[in-house]
Design brief:
By secondary structure, this protein is mostly helical. 73% of the residues lie in helices and 5% in strands.
Length: 322
């Protein structure tokens, strides 16, 4: 059955297309097969690394602390985020399956942006955890209870899902006529879908920017303020060893924070303002923004966290680690 059989054309535009076509990386179609190989390797390593983190944190009772439980939330979010895009992307690159139902495309878009915003929220929660642990250590255990951690995890994800939803509703309800059904992207990204419309898209653009700045902008401001306060407190400690120990507990989170936001902002601004940058650069940056953090996060925390390193070493050198 031809998925594109029910497309209606009106005045040179396509009315309510049931199916869209993702072309992958425009300009690099001839080498997409080979690009899919490192992308697939990144996905497999990310799945393995984050799954291993989840198993270690679940099985090791000493790691049932706020910092590691937030890390487990981050790992689960990374698995979900990369799984939202890689299978379909590899279907485009390797098996020439570019078609996707319009509603399925909107659902993928909602999942991707929801998990992106959720990851940002978890990074904020981790920053606040480090802030209380260093600046008010006596109250840390009473503030960051398991009940609060559950509420934070659910609240961050619910807030992201609700704030992203209007972008989908506006596309579904406002945009009826499209110039083309061909999406110059490897996944269903908000602006890539909006730019297909033959109608006024200013409201959609404003909504997208509002969501980006109300979630990511809000979080980055609070994370930055938290670390400014942390650094002030740490550098006022009288003993050098205490300063180094306090900073060491933050290094992994700072690395993950910088990696996530630097890639994100670079992708965001080149996509909207880099008019002279080739399209394939935009798309590659967008893909890396979603694939690199899930790959690097477990590596960064595995290298910087002694308890996790020790547990991984036991698993690698024992036939029955549990």
């Amino acid at each position: 059955m031809n998925l594109k059989a029910n497309v209606f054309k009106l005045n040179g535009t396509i009315f309510m297309p049931p199916v869209l076509t993702l072309i992958g990386i425009p300009g690099l179609e001839s080498v997409q097969f080979w690009i899919g190989i490192p992308f697939c390797a990144m996905y497999i390593i990310a799945l393995f690394g984050n799954s291993l983190l989840l198993v270690i944190i679940k099985s090791e009772h000493s790691l049932h602390e706020p910092m590691y439980l937030f890390l487990a939330m981050l790992g689960a979010t990374d698995i979900a985020l990369s799984t939202c895009i890689l299978p379909k992307m590899l279907g485009i690159f390797w098996f020439h399956l570019p078609d996707i139902y319009f509603d399925a495309c909107l659902f993928q878009m909602w999942l991707i942006h929801t998990f992106q915003c959720t990851e940002s929220g978890i990074l904020l929660a981790m920053a606040l955890d480090r802030y209380v642990a260093i600046c008010d250590p006596l109250r840390h255990a009473t503030i960051f209870t398991h009940k609060l951690l559950t509420q934070i995890g659910m609240g961050v994800m619910l807030r992201a899902a609700l704030l992203v939803a209007p972008c989908l509703i506006l596309i579904k309800c406002r945009l009826k006529h499209f110039r083309t059904t061909v999406v110059s992207h490897s996944y269903c990204e908000h602006m890539a879908i909006v730019k297909l419309a033959a109608e006024d898209i200013r409201v959609n653009k404003i909504c997208g920017l509002f969501v980006a700045f109300s979630i990511l902008g809000f979080y980055i401001i609070f994370i930055t303020v938290s670390y400014i306060r942390i650094f002030i407190t740490v550098f006022n400690l009288p003993q050098r060893e205490a300063r180094l120990k306090a900073l060491n507990t933050c290094i992994a989170h700072i690395c993950v924070f910088l990696e996530f936001y630097l890639l994100g902002f670079f992708s965001f601004f080149t996509h909207r303002f880099g008019f002279h940058i080739p399209p394939y650069i935009h798309i590659l940056l967008s893909n890396l923004y979603l694939l690199v953090p899930p790959l690097l996060n477990p590596i960064v925390y595995g290298v910087k966290t002694k308890q996790i390193r020790d547990r991984v070493s036991k698993i690698l050198h024992s036939t029955d680690p549990f």
